[in-house]
Structures are given as C-alpha cells and as structure tokens.
Specification:
Distance between the termini of chain A: 35 Å
Strand content of chain A: 15-25%
Largest sheet of chain A: 5 strands, mixed
Shape of chain A: globular
Low-confidence stretches of chain A: none
Mean pLDDT of chain A: 92
Structural class of chain A: alpha+beta
Largest interface: A-B, 48 and 48 residues
Number of helices of chain A: 10
Oligomer: homodimer
CATH architecture of the largest domain in chain A: Orthogonal Bundle
Radius of gyration of chain A: 19 Å
CATH class of the largest domain in chain A: Mainly Alpha
Strand order of the largest sheet of chain A: 6-5-4-7-8
CATH topology of the largest domain in chain A: Arc Repressor Mutant, subunit A
Chain lengths: 209, 209
DNA sequence: CGGCATCCTCTTTGATACTG
DNA sequence: CAGTATCAAAGAGGATGCCG
C-alpha cells in the first residue's frame, strides 16, 4: 500500500495493514494458527492467488507473518504469526465487535467458513461457571464445530463430539443468531435452523454484552 | 469498496470502513468534532479532493457521517459523526496502539498536524491525581496545543495558555517522544527539541502502558 | 474562496492460465 | 501443492473547471 505519509500512529498502522485482504489474512492465522498456502486460500474465499502471495510477502517483510518449514510429517511450509502479528488481535476484536451488528442482515449469498464462528463465540459467556459443562455440536458451513464451556468461558473448535447437549444445524445466520441470543428458536427455525437436544443448554451461553 | 462477500463480522466491517482514507476521515471527525470540508482536507494531507467527496458520500450512506447545516454564524455545512460513527473509537484506539511503536522511527518527511497528538496523549496518565494540575504548552506542527491534567487523566486541546509549567517546541517526533516518556530530554534536545520550564512537570505525565 | 465534479494517467486488483 | 505470469477492469492520484 502506498504510504499515507502522515506522522500519526493510525496512519502508520494502516500503511502496514490497511491493504485490501491484509487484515483478513491475519484473521485466518489468528483463528486457525499456522496455515499452509492452500489453507489460507480456503479460508479467504474470493482472494486472487497472486494477491495472496503478494500480501504474504508484504506481511513477512513487515514482521507480521513468518514462513517456516513444517515439521517432518508435512512436506510443505507454513505461515504463522509473529508476536507482532498476534498483537493485531485487539484490532480484529474491535473491528469484529463493530461489525457484529452488520451480521443481523443474514447472508446476501456471502461465503461462509465454520471457523469464523470462533470470533463471536469467544465473546459469549458461561452464565453459571459452577454448573456442569455444556457442549453443543454445530453443523453449518464447511466443517462441524464443537462449542464447549470451560471454567466460565465459551470456546469453539473444529470437530465432533459424542452426546452433545444440543445440535444446531442449518444456515449460518440462524445458527449464529441463536448462539448469540439475537434470534429466538422459533424465528431461527423459520429461517431453516434444525435444532435437537436440550434448549436449556442454550441458556447456559449468553452474550457478554 | 468492493465487498469481500464473507459472512464474518470483520469482513463486513471492512466492507464499510476498509477503503483507503475512510478510517482517517473518521479519525479527523473524532479528534476535531464537526468539520467543514476544508477542515477535513487540511487534516488529511495527501487526499485527492474527489476522493474526499466520494468517501464522505459513502460514509454518509453507511450511516457513519452526517452532513448538517451549520448554525447561522457559519455559512457552510458541517460533517459530523453519527453515534454509529463514534462507535468506531475503539477501532481507532486499537489501531493507534498497535501503530504507536511505528512512531519511534521519527519522520521520513511525513506530514504532521498538531491535533493528531491528542490520541497518544489521551493514553498518558497523571501519576498523582491529588497533586496540583500540570499544564504544558506544545509548539510543534501547524498550531499550538495545550496539554493539561484533569482529575487523574491527561488531555490535549488546541490553544495557548499563560504561564505553563513547561514549553515543548521543535520536531514532532522529539516532542512526542518526550511526552510519552520514550525519549529522554538529552536525546530529544539532540533531535531539535527546545525545552523550557519545569522538568518535574514531565514526570507528572506517564505512559499508562 | 469553499465545495465539489470532470478528465486523464498511473497503480492496484481480480480472474484465469500456466509451471516446478 | 504452492505459487508465478498475464492481462483486463477498477480504483487512486493529480490537475483543472465550474458554480454559488
């Protein structure tokens, strides 16, 4: 990106990460940890491959991303964040918080990847830390996810679990709407949500405001 | 900006404010309050006038900026932030925090405007709230600024004050470096800082980390 | 002059094809 | 798999023109 040439911290930050796609690449690496080139392409639907290569080069030069050789089992190299890159977490956090109200409009044919749910879900809070743990199986997007409470917080990870307290399946906006408490079950069902299990499990998960 | 078309809060936020210059326009309106078109141009050195007009139109359509007729004395219209626009404060805050280490490299011929100092200065903290207030006069950039402590916090505003506890003048990086405690007085003087007054006044102002 | 709209050039992006 | 090469389209930057 062409520099703004302003002696201001915001402008200088944007000189480095203000390019189109740059912050979304960081999002992928924060959400998924070290990634192969192909993993990044999959998590960034719409990016042109030459742009991904360009941006990775720039981010590497800026000390945000590091290219490392993967340990023996994998025969490729991985991209991962440097500590300086991980420091962008609060930037993504504030942007995501500001953007969360824009998620109410559902999709307009937007692409979706399941692991993107980890961001809003990490903002949920387990209302009763001393109560028994809750597990919820999600089936939306490209891969199944598990939501589980752990010591007062809520986390999401890819994978499946046996005997979850509830299963949510269907379109991403309905699943997300119910999870964050923005949409009630009846409305979500009308939008295509399939729900099984214990409704009380959802009440253990509440938006932290 | 072309949409990323991703059902992710970060991507949707960037759909709205990810355009070049957009967040810097918001910076100006947060730092200076309602602005005339010309004020914005002055605070955004390097922007092409058609781009400023374009961006203002987009930001208005997105509900971030509002164009209002100024009250009688002024014969022009003003641009101001909507509540939704003011909600971008934390985004600029986190970006500025991340970018602050990029300010150590001084200028490379970058443009500078005095009011940009308000951002880093608001992160300073008055170490001893019960101690007498401190006022510092700054003379760097396009207009004089006053830094003053008030009930435990530190604020900056344009203007001059009589009998300040200290006066800092010279290049912006030296003034800023001393203010945030990154540069000691000797080094700042070698970089062109002119200092008058009470050194102890600086010790009342400390980075809040 | 403040507040844009137009025109033109140059750079960046996006889509696709191709290679080690 | 992990990119590079190519080329058309979109966007940015700069100059200038217009209008109250």
């Amino acid at each position: 990106m062409r520099s703004y040439e302003q002696y201001c911290a915001v402008a200088r930050a944007l000189d480095v990460v203000g390019d189109r796609w740059s912050l979304l690449i960081v999002r992928e690496l924060i959400l998924r940890g070290p990634c192969r080139y192909t993993d990044l392409r999959h998590g960034l639907p719409g990016i042109a491959t030459n742009l991904l290569a360009d941006r990775l080069g720039e981010l590497e030069k800026a000390g945000i991303v590091e290219k490392v050789d993967a340990p023996p089992p994998v025969a490729t190299s991985l991209y991962e964040l440097t500590p300086r890159g991980r420091d962008l977490g609060p930037v993504l956090e504030s942007l995501g918080r500001w953007g969360s109200v824009l998620m109410e409009t559902g999709r307009r044919g937007d692409q979706f990847r399941s692991h993107w749910l980890a961001f809003p879900i990490s903002r949920l809070v387990d209302a009763a830390p001393e109560a028994p743990p809750v597990t919820i199986q999600l089936r939306t997007g490209d891969q199944p996810m598990v939501v589980e409470t752990a010591s007062g917080s809520v986390r999401a990870r890819p994978g499946t679990i046996e005997d979850p307290d509830a299963v949510l399946a269907g379109p991403p906006d309905a699943v997300l709407g119910v999870l964050v408490g923005r949409m009630d079950l009846a409305k979500a069902r009308r939008r295509g949500l399939r729900f099984e299990g214990n409704v009380a499990a959802l009440e253990r998960i509440r938006p932290s405001r």
